[in-house]
Structure formats: C-alpha cells, structure tokens
Amino acid sequence: MAKAIKIRKGLDLKLKGKPTQTISPVENSPYYAIKPSDFPSMTPKMVVKEGETVKVGTPIFHDKYREAIQYVSPVSGTVIEVKRGEKRRILEVIIKADSEFTFETMDTKGETKEVILKSGLWPFIKQRPLDIVADYNKIPKAIFVSGFDSSPLAPDFEFLLKDKKDALQAGFEALAKMTEGKVYVTIETSSKGTSVFTDLKGIELHTINSKHPAGNVGTQIHKISPINKGETVWTVNAIDVARIGSLFLTGKVDFSKTIALTGSEVEMPSYYTLISGASLTNLVDKKITSENVRYISGNVLVGNNVGKDGFLGFYDNQVTVIPEGDHYKVSFTEGWLAPGFNKLSNSKAFLSALLPKKSYDVDTNLNGEERAFVVSGQYEEVFPFDIYPVQLLKAAITNDIDKMEKLGIYEVAPEDFALCEFVCTSKINSQQIIRDGLKVIEEECM
Amino acid sequence: MKFLRNFFDKRYEKTNKKWYPLIESFETLVFTPNHTTKSGSHIRDGIDLKRTMMFVIVAMVPALLFGIWNVGQQHFIALGQEVDFMEKIIHGAIRVVPIIAVSYTVGLAVEFIFGIIKGHALHEGYLVSGMLIPLIMPVDTPLWMIAVATVFGVVIGKEVFGGTGMNVVNVALTTRAFLFFAHPTSMSGNTVWISGLKEMKANGTLADGVSGATPLGDLASMTTDSPAYANIQDFTENGITFSRALMGDYPGSIGESSVYAILIGLVFLLMTRIASWRIIVSFFAGGFVMATIFNLFAGDNAYMQLPAIHQLMIGSFMFGMVFMITDPVTAAQTNKGKFYYGFLAGFIGILIRVANPAYPEGIMLGILIANVCSPLIDHMVLNGNIKRREKRLAKASL
C-alpha cells in the first residue's frame, strides 16, 4: 500500500552550481583506487600484491572478519601501489588501468546472494543498524531503496536511470529474494506517475515530499517501518540496484557510473560518465574557476575531502567543488558582526533571511569557534525523526551504551545528522560522534 | 584590517603560550578564525555563538536605555525638581554606566582567569550575563557588592560546572539571589530603588509623598497594617495604572520596569528566532494561570485581587520572561519540556511573589527553581520517547 509521507522538518540548502542535464564526455582516467575508508569499521585483508595484474572483478582485498565480502577491481590493469598510513593501515590500493578491459567470468546461475558476493557488488548493499556493509549471514526485515537524492546539488536519479528500467527491475527481483519482508522504494511526491520506478514489480512504492533529508533512506525507513533493537534492514542506492540488475541481465560487472560534477567553483556543472574509483584529475581538469578549492567526493554534507588528485568514492555519484575557507574573516564585513546578505543560515540572524530564493557559494570555513552545546531546539528543526538528537549525541559522547540504545542509535546513520552538523551554532561534529557511537555499539552489542 | 592581523600574529609570536586564550579572545572579536571543516558537513551555517549572544545584548538595549532615563526620572521626582530630558539621561548614565562597567570588568576577569587555567578563549556566555546583571539590580546597590556578587555568580553559578553551556542555574540570577540573601537591606525595602534616596532622606531634600517603594512593595504593604493604598481599586486607578505598568516610569530594578522596552526586545528575539517562543508562551501562561487562581480565591487580600494581566505587567515578570527564562543552557532542552519548564517558572514565580510578600522577587526564585527542575523535566520527556520505542519493540516481537 503506497504511503504518502510528508516531513516538515528539514532544510534545503540553496547552493550555486546545480548540474545541467547533459552528459559530457571525459577522457578515461589512467588511475583508479579502492579505499577501505569508504567502508566504515571494515578491516581489509589484501588478496593481491603490488605489481600483480588484475581484471575487472578480480578481488583486491576482502573483509578480514567476513571473508565472503570481496572488494574487487573496477578496471583491468596493474596494482601499482598499496598506500599505507599509521600502523600500516591500508589507505588506498591504486590500480593503473589498461586501455582495453578484460573481465573475470561470472556465473549468474547460482543462489542470488552467492552471485552478488562473488561479483564484488555486495558492498553496495548496506545495513542498518551500524551503517556498514550488510552482513550476509542475516536475513533483513526489509530492504529500503531511496528513489531520489535530496542532498545539496545532488544528481537527478530519474535522469540517470531513465534508460535502465530493465536493469532496475532485475535488481529489485534479486533483492526481493534476499529478504523475508518487502522491498520499499520511496520517490518524490512530485515525480509520482512519471517516475521510472512507477511500474516496477515486486516493490512497494511510497512517496515523500522533497525537503532534505527526505531523500535519505534513513528518514524513509523511520517513516515506513522503524528499526527496533535486534532487527536488521538493508539499504541500497537506486543507482546500484540497476548495477546489480545489470549483472544478472548481462553476466558482467559494470563499475561505470554517471556522476554529477557540481559546486560553485565548477564552470559548467553537468554529468560525466566514468568508472568507480577513478582519479578526479581528468574530470576536473580545466573546469574549475578558482585556485583555492576543496574537492569533495560526494555532496557537501556527507562527502569526503579527497583533493584534486584524489579518487571517486565507492558509493558516490557526485563530485562537489567549493571554495576553501581557510582565511580570516573580518567580523564587520564577513564575520559575526556582518549584516550577512551572503551568509547561508538556517537561523534568522542574518539579513539573508530576507532573500529566501537566493543561492549561495559557501566556503569551508567553520564560521565560528567550537563551543559546548548552548543553543537548544536547533537540531530538532532539521531532524525529522522521533528521536532526540542532542540527547542521543550526548549519550554517544559519554559512551553510554544503555542510553544510546534507548534513545534510538539503531535507527540512525551519521548522514542523518549531517544537517544537524550544518546548523549547529556550537560547530559540533555530530556525524563523527555518531560514527564513534556506532563503533562502540558494534564492539559491545553486536 | 591588515595591520590588526599583523598585530595579532605578532602577539602570538611574542607571548608565552599560556596567555594565548587571552589573545584569542580579543582576536576573535575582530576576526572569525581561519578554521575549516575537516570532514562531514563541509559547509557550516553562518551563525555562531558570538552573533547569537550579541543579538541578545542588542535586544536588551531598549530596556537599558529606558532604565537609564528612568533612573534620572525617579531621582528628580524624588527631589521634587522639574528638569529636562537630557539631565535625566545624564544622571541615569552616571549611575548606571559604572554598574555595567563593574559587572563586565569583574565578570570577564573571572572568565579570563578560568579560560587561561583551562586553556580556552573566552566563551561568550558572560557577554549576556554581564548586561543582565546591571539590568536586574536596584540602582543604589553599592558597586563593591555587585563586584562580590558577580564573582560568586560566575564562579559558583557557572565555572564550577565547567563554564558556558554547562551551568545549571542562570548566572545573572545567581548573582541577584546571592545579593538578595547576603545583603537583603541593599536589595529590598523602600530605599534602594531611587538613586540617592537615602541621602535625600538624611538631609531632608526628599519631596513629599515619595516613598521610594516599588509597585510590588506597595502591593505587599497592602496586606499589612500600613497599606500604601486603601484598596486594590485605589492602586489600579490612582497608583500604578495598567498603562503606567506598561510604560514603566516607576521605581524598580534598572531595566525591568518598562514593558514596552522589553517587548521591543521580545519582538527582536522572536523574529531572529534566538529565543524560544515555547518557553515564552508557557511562562506567560503559567504566570497568568497562577494570578487568575489568586483572583478567584482572593477574599479580602488586596494583593491577590490584582487582575491577573495587571499582575504580570509589574515587577520583573516580563523582563524574566524575555531575558531570563529563555536562557537556553539552563532551560529545558527538549521542545516538549520547554512548555512544562516555562509554565512551572511562571506559575511558581507568581505564587512566591503573592503568597509570600516578604520575597517581592518571586519571579527570580521561580526561574531559579525551574532551572533546577529542568533536567528532571527533560528526563521525563525523554522517558516518554524511550517508552514509545519500547512499546514499538514489544509490538514488533509479538
């Protein structure tokens, strides 16, 4: 039964640099990377060594504690470097691509779960609680897929998926086999009827209004069937449902993705097709309008700062380039005493509150100093859960497991707190606090 | 601004590290630091604590300006002299500015000491407290008392709990309460509300008919053997009429008397969404309900007969509603809790004021009691949320 969900709490950040709906060509990048940091709380165990040649789909490393989960090469080529950090922790495995790709042979006949695990597409399936790659030993209560992305400057899923209806259908069929419950898809109310998801079979379609974080799957889970202690649900990005589907249709793993290059510092924000894990060097070359900028794989709220020569994140369908804010701001002109026509703020304390339609180019400055929690009620305005965000954060800060459980830690992921982090007067890093809290829960309670 | 930037950079180079918090405190007044986000949300809202606090101070300016005028006004009425506007302002400023100066100097000095010990720059909380303290003082409070009370308020009211954001009770009210209990003769009675009244009494220059009492003092006297007014009608028609209660030209703490001036601040705080409307509305409701209850059971008690709405417009009720109860740190944190919290404070405030006229500062005590109760209120609200979650779990596991 389709449910029409409406959230009142939330915030759409009006930023400059929306992508136009054209797919532009870009020269293939020679370098690709798989980053264990894209998969929270996973410990990688290398399968290949530096210098070995790999094909598309060859396992690079697997999860040390859940060995069936393999992380495979998105291209064929040579492993040229295993970058390590402190305590020899693996940061990046870098692969130099061949000009022609060869593929590992895939058998798509067997049990769905086995096929996906072997193909290397399994990490696209995530689970809640914990917001980590799904545990294949569990049967989820349900699988949730968000049919759109409401984050700032996000790519338009309808545009990206308009020719992939068959792959989507096959993907949903595969997912449906792995749960005892339903596969829920939630689309924007405004795209009802015209959406690519409309006639798909085997799913339960819901609609929600578009105010961010409506597109976050966490919001949708909470409104449709909230997670109780002991329950597990899986989530998959809609783009990757099509990827899983195309594995079953073609028998090949396809790591190509069309991403949106966005942000105020991009000359002509639009879409580009490249391969997962690609170096950004070619993508951003000659398209950036200023010098001192930050390259974010993902959106401004939850993405990672990867640098100009960094690599596209595993889950990301977007690259955002915004100005760095590493300069002092004179308080009267652009700081805390300024009239603030150019300040993006959810508060009404700047004159920009009088310009509701304006778009902003916001830099990475904290716009203030870190403080203890002082202002209250701010997070609640942008947090559409029946959860008390500040109290949950305080429980996480103090490592109070009992309190975290009681206040709903099982239902949330760091990304759900991204807007709280944005609006915070005290500049508290809520997402990291929740991630740390989830880590404690994983170690102590799972 | 380049020279200022260089100035601060040089200070950092030349100074011992332990004094950095001091430099930083002044530096951040002029420059928002070059700190950037590391991960997560790469962009942040323009608002910070400095701006939030500054807006509260701006909201207090009308009350302050009116207070300065009113100090002059009451002084010259007590002398029986007719003087022009400027003269009143000048007299008021001469009396009020030193109080503000003492409050800020002493309070900030304490904050800096703690900041340097703990190695952090000034946290902005005291910028507001430092202005609140003068506004809730009787004008003739000796400066040294204000200094002592401020030290007590900042240290015991805030720093022992960990500084801005950690305190349980409102700092300004702690200061006020300390003075009220430690030096009751300087904080109550009829001689402290008009500047220079004691001297006037001593040398006989006090005009006829000036008692120096606040409206609350007058009301309290009506339950004793020597009432200031014959009955409550006499008070509301010939004494502090409703329109005079709104205007605020009567003796009282420096900033608390004028409802109009306070309402300007209220509108500003609500428009900028700095203050929580939930607390304000429920505080007003709490006071109104209590005052109405008194009206219903007044009998021949003149204080209790005072119409509810009139009751709320005199004394510090409105000032407390806009500037004290809305302090987010000491208030309930949950949106639901804010309703209970505000109501409790208003209700108890009027209860103490009327039921025990020996404490005319009932509102202060009401807010302090609500401050102490706010963690409990939040606890109950959270428990409701926890129960809902447990119920859902029980239903799911059936």
Would you give an account of this structure?
The complex is a heterodimer of chains A (446) and B (398). Chain A has helices spanning 112-119, 157-161, 165-176, 217-224, 238-250, 281-284, 389-397, 401-407, 418-423, 430-445; strands at residues 4-5, 23-24, 31-34, 44-46, 53-54, 59-63, 70-72, 77-84, 90-97, 125-128, 132-133, 142-146, 183-188, 204-208, 233-237, 256-262, 270-275, 293-297, 304-305, 318-323, 329-330. By secondary structure, chain A is an alpha/beta fold. Among the domains of chain A are: 4-27 and 105-250, 3-Layer(aba) Sandwich (Rossmann fold), CATH 3.40.50; 366-445, no CATH class. In chain A, helix 7 (389-397) packs antiparallel against helix 8. The longest helix of chain A has 16 residues, at 430-445. Chain B has two domains: 49-187; 215-249 and 275-385, no CATH class. Chain B has 19 helices and one strand. In chain B, helix 13 (259-271) runs parallel beside helix 17 (317-324). The longest helix of chain B is centred in the last third of the chain and has 35 residues, at 362-396. The mean pLDDT of chain B is 89. The chains are: A alpha/beta (446), B mainly alpha (398). Chains A and B meet through strand 19, strand 21, helix 9 and helix 10 of A and helix 2, strand 1, helix 3 and helix 19 of B.
Unreliable spans of chain B are none
Helix content of chain A: 10-25%
Outline of chain A, from the CA principal axes? globular
How many independent structural domains of chain B?
Answer: 2
Strands of chain A, total number: 21
Residue runs with pLDDT of under 50 for 5 or more positions of chain A: none
Q: What is the strand tally of chain B? A: 1
Summing up helix and strand content along with how strands pair, one would put the structural category of chain A as alpha/beta
Give the amount of beta strand of chain B, in percent.
under 5%
The CATH class designation of the domain at 4-27 and 105-250 in chain A is Alpha Beta
Q: Enumerate how many helices of chain A there are, as a single number.
A: 10
CATH fold name of the domain at 4-27 and 105-250 in chain A? Rossmann fold
N-C termini distance of chain A? 33 Å
Q: Between the first and last Cα atoms of chain B, what is the distance in angstroms?
A: 68 Å
Q: What's the shape of chain B?
A: globular
In N-to-C order, the SSE pattern of chain B is HHEHHHHHHHHHHHHHHHHH
Mean pLDDT of chain A: 91
The SS-based structural class of chain B is mainly alpha
